[in-house]
Amino acid sequence: MAEALDRATREALRAAPDGTAGPCLASVHRGLEGPFSRYLRGQRKAAEALGLRFREEVIDPEEGPSGLVARVRALDQDGSVHGVLVEHPLPPPYDFSAAIGQLRAEKDVDGVGTENLGRLLTGRPGHAPAVCLAALAVARHYMLPIEGQPVAVVGRSGTVGLPLALLLTRRTPGPNATVTVAHSKTPDLARALSTSKTIFTCAGSPHLLTRTVVPEGASVVDIGLASMPDPSRPSGARMVGDADPDSLEGWARALSPVPGGVGPVTVAQLMWNTVSAWQTLTGRETPP
Amino acid sequence: MAEALDRATREALRAAPDGTAGPCLASVHRGLEGPFSRYLRGQRKAAEALGLRFREEVIDPEEGPSGLVARVRALDQDGSVHGVLVEHPLPPPYDFSAAIGQLRAEKDVDGVGTENLGRLLTGRPGHAPAVCLAALAVARHYMLPIEGQPVAVVGRSGTVGLPLALLLTRRTPGPNATVTVAHSKTPDLARALSTSKTIFTCAGSPHLLTRTVVPEGASVVDIGLASMPDPSRPSGARMVGDADPDSLEGWARALSPVPGGVGPVTVAQLMWNTVSAWQTLTGRETPP
Fold first, then answer.
1. Inter-chain touch B118–A119, beta carbons under 8 Å
2. Phi/psi of residue B233, nearest 5 degrees
3. B273: containing domain
4. Whether residues B56 and B101 fall in one domain
5. % of residues, chain A, pLDDT over 70
6. Alpha-carbon distances of B24 from B27, B82, B126, rounded to whole Å
7. Do B148 and A183 touch (CB under 8 A)?
8. Model-level pTM?
9. Could you give the CA distance from residue B45 to residue B39 in angstroms, rounded to a whole number?
10. Are residues B193 and B251 in the same domain?
11. Any CB–CB contact under 8 A between A181 and chain B?
12. CA-CA distance, B204 to B159, in Å (whole number)?
């Protein structure tokens, strides 16, 4: 699916003039190793491969929360920038919500600002979170049962689980799914998932989904991402999803891998969203 | 529950100076009989009983959609108005979304604008739709099982079903419920509701919920409202909910009636939201 999105992005970029006028994505972060740095490396690499301009905006510790807000405000005003992404989650006293609130909806290409999230309910066009669109693209690519089907979302974050649940309930051409949202306070996860044909999981809890809780023959799209100690790796750790692949082998109909799976598609989606924002902001036609 | 909300509203109003400086709710509508007129009568009556100022702003047909937008913009700027409600749904070419988009979040006391809906996902404080808060108040007043329980919402409108589902998933002090959203395209409603302890229904489909689809012993909060022909009434019609009371009698644990039930609490909630908006906009303390 990343390939299909990348083709669309390249196609749209052919219309871009050379030099500084093409689409530009700015990624605002603290320059630290951590959960965001993996995503950041993916953005940099994809932008280079596709020919999008990519700006890293590093917030120094001395700049702090007010510096972050000011930087995002400046990027909103900067006509040469078409998409802005802000590292999240951010530890206090950084206020992610205040920072992203500086951004007009069109430039919020990760679809995590209040305006874009609200549009998921009102049906007005906007950017949906790239990771949610990527999870849906994975499900559709592998023809997993979601259209008109009972599906579950495990996880209720405001930037992943909840917007994904809203997208899944959407009317045609949306999936029209009957959606169950489960989470850490769900007393009986197996029962909550018992009727689901496809399960999207974004809890960030390694090995949460085993054959004990996943119904036999159900499909799992794994959006979870957590670090597990692994002495065999040079880094001493490896990234894992929410699903336990050993337990689900020969039990689930399908399981998207972590790493791989939804991750690379999210980056491709983000690049496409940036090109789409550039088209909107510069008055170009959006291709059908 | 309406009584408890009204007490809180009266308590807050004691701090209001006499005359034009107290809280004021403006209700913008087309002055026609229809689904909104019942709600409008309730607003007028409640405002009079509680001592809130209430302004009706009637949009003439000649003013049309642009007149509606201009009127809401003027009310947003009017410092003597603290809450604004716009008739909805509105038939085309009226653009409800464009009208409500003129309003700052604090004055959107029915919680149906994009900013307030988006805040349901980001967790920033804002107004949630009055009807959703009312349905939760009804469930809590009658101690229906929602806290940490499997519950269902039947209906996926952006102003009722979806925001209610988001509120139900909220962490403590929210209900922490495991929520299933079902709708007109749910292929097997009985199966979708089979694990639910409490069912909130807002489909606007009379007699949708019978003992065929509601599990025995489940509770039903009825937010549906539709008009049914009734030759025995002077008006020739009566208002009914989504639930079939005859079918659910002796089967459901509890059923909130329509009319009555959630309706009057919605009006009380709207009045409270207006007082709360007045407190915020005039820099008064919000009581705990």
1. yes
2. -95, 150
3. 2-108+264-281
4. yes
5. 97
6. 10, 5, 18
7. no
8. 0.95
9. 10
10. yes
11. yes
12. 13
